[in-house]
């Protein structure tokens, strides 16, 4: 307890503590901040915080008076003409589902199907699709798929939008060079290809005669076995056709590195649950939404399994990261170095030289000699103390240590990392690293820069017909190729895609591709797991076909085409019928042995019919009849054998479809000795690496006039997901920017180049526009300053600036592909960034929902002191002042306010005190009739949740999953900037440290409604719209809500969301009634237009909504409900099974089910065997703002770090907490008052002990 004077007047007038001093108090004494404005404590930021809500969130309209009157004048004129009332209830239409109900559909009960989703760049996710009355509504991870294990990524969660995208390609579009685009059909295209239309050349026959000369295919990278088989068939038919793979955001360096080390291509497979020490060289192995990390879901799960110790002495891994900008992986690092991408190789060479000093054997000395010859210019960015400490740590954990390299690094550095891991004995089937051999002839090993090969072929006049399958080179090909101009010179261009693309608009034919939820197919994950893709709905815009069906039709093989009754094969495609995707997959799986070793009956017997003899010739007639009977018997025998064969094949096929994964044969093992984990007998591999490592040239550190540039894909991938609004509105893991892709630079680089933005403005934060020049390519882009970035480099996000994506993605951000050149890869040197006077409006959520300067929101501790204090039992001690009540504080709560304040004992008798924790032995509870009853909140179930900040990687998958499950609308860039984002669960990002240029670390903390037992929101609602349920949930009754927002004002966690407009009823970026009258111009904010004049959400888009959750209308408050619809569904199931309580883990909330690292746990807190109950009793559990006596049902687990004592001495949080002044120069004062309003209260520095002292 505080021992200061009891009255502040005895000390005279004392200056209040600053926000910087207050934010340093507690934990380990580190300062925590969200943005440079908060760290600097600028007046503008304090003004924003004092408003309690994001600036502009409560202001209904924006824009000038002139704009408002212009729009409203036109709107009211049309509204008056149509006699539309200003306020009315929304219209709803209902239709009965009463005819032809399938027997496996129960109205109101979801049906689930297992499938898989191909990932950009190869690989796959195994998924479980939730359907309602035949329409898919939710995507979950497949429980039996080894990559997902029930978890998912943002991309798979948002893939439901691809199916219901109203802007997707429908049918076929014919775009003649001398005419306007016209809507056509698939049969029109098939007739055009086969020359059945008058005056049209038969292209099928033409390319049969020329063996494919003049024909080219540009495809995306796919690991599908069926597409590989179709490609092989196509090559057999047209061997001279060009086949190229185009993946603009993917690097070939990892594969080329294995070719250097092992002589053939391999894929690196990691089991990070076996790793004690991990050293990452600019590899973000935890980022699941990356074309270069198809196994990131498994990496995150395995990494997190060793990251959250529950008891003292539990083992924990240690992570070293060398990277250029903060990533999900860097945010989890125990030690991190910010290094320019071109200088990462210096750390790789220094680490290898240090580690291999004591390794003896064939080839190792030669490799050491080659490393000594690599020229590494010294600089301040190369910390040899860091390298030596990490090397010793890796060597100490031989067999359980690993070195990883990022995709932008040269192939030689990847090969060197494989040699390091071999020296650490970490390679092998039961070790941290294993390798999967790849087929060198497959698309998985094809170069990713296929657009260059096609461009060269066009220039050479070798392309007459170009077919682009699921690629968009007109948009994302390197700018120096000038691909759009070359594409226009090709005589015949065809595009197959699901979404609208720039390439499709420039094509002669644009064909509709079936979404993976609409077609048959298969996938192969990065670990070799093969899974089926089965349609869960018929094509919404039929006909639509997958790429394997179109390519199968081109190949004209019997196995790929529907078989006629006579069983005869066809070698010429039938324009009337497309190839059958189901048959293609079955044929492929049978050839791979995935359907068992079953002998087939052979081809169906075909007989030449004999003419029937003259009936008067009895002997001839008898002989003919005997032959006919024999043929019939043979045909019946074949049919019986074929039915048996189909049943035998159907068993494994049915099992694969039910489980979502094939029964795989044993995995191929590498033949190379080093790839198999051997240290001796690897001389050839080491010699190959040594011969190539000498070509590595590590440049000097970049300078402001000679910058490094690195390219990376953001939430929308390489641009293919640009029309998915959930991903556009998902804040980036580091910048928290939405709906944009500004380039990021470090604070020091921004200051040197005079790129610092204007002071923080509460209305519209604006970034400065600069000209980025890479080689001879220049683009104008906004600049965002990112703390923790390496100096002298620029981070450029790809995938934005689309012009033909659809109503959502068009015009969002900047097309940064224009700054890339062919052969450049993901990194370039020698760039320049030149300041301009223009500014650009940016929407970032980094300062939204600030908790008003309160500290100890996020708590962390170093592993040695966790082991020290967590070993002590939780003890109860009497309060020092009152001496009556006892406090039971675990380790995490001892690091907060409750260690210095009296127990929170309510002075009132209310139902929330009637819980098991508060009931005394001599106390009874009676109902209204006077009968003794159990305490109200001691009756199971009582729901609660825990969130582990030690394992959270800040990926935001929980946010997207919650949006999908609960029908949460998107609001757009303008509304997000005003603080009106609607996501129920947010992921707060904090930096730690005193210098915003070089923060110590970046941490993430998910925050949703914590379901307070003593909820401040409930007592202020004038209409009882927010109430407390019998199971401890804080419920919302939407029909009662009148939109006063008192509840949001009184919520200390800022987790309530208000529908300022009809976001769920009007179409996002849709048209409006008087658009043509004002010249087609669009206002900055469409919400100024009355909803009745705006385009409504179309019926197809409505199909994505969860029917168990209400779509809220304007003026209604909403928030997290713990997925009440799932709770009710589980309760119904338990009643049907006559069970008293819902078993732990029987169901999961949407955020819990999606979380890749299992950081979120939900369950019954009164079930002592439940996981959530055990975690709440753990030493790491604490309550956000628990000293306010809100009694949250959601608790957080403090973050545990595992530093190397040689690099940083572990900090004792209790030592900091006991230092007078709060540690590290902080000021130890009570925080009963709001520190940001200290100027309004002269007695702010009051130190009355009874008020409590902030920890």
Structure keywords:
seven-stranded mixed sheet, disordered C terminus, Dimethylsulfoxide Reductase, domain 2, single chain, alpha/beta, six-stranded mixed sheet, 1255 residues, disordered N terminus
Q: Would you report the number of β strands?
A: 43
pLDDT below 50 for ≥5 consecutive residues: which ranges? Answer: 1-14, 74-98, 563-571, 880-884, 1217-1255
Structural class from helices and strands?
alpha/beta
CATH homology-level superfamily of the domain at 253-429 and 673-693: Dimethylsulfoxide Reductase, domain 2
Average pLDDT reading: 81
Count of helical stretches: 36
First-residue to last-residue Cα separation = 10 Å
The proportion of strand residues reads: 15-25%
* Helical coverage, percent range: 25-40%
CATH class of the domain at 253-429 and 673-693: Alpha Beta
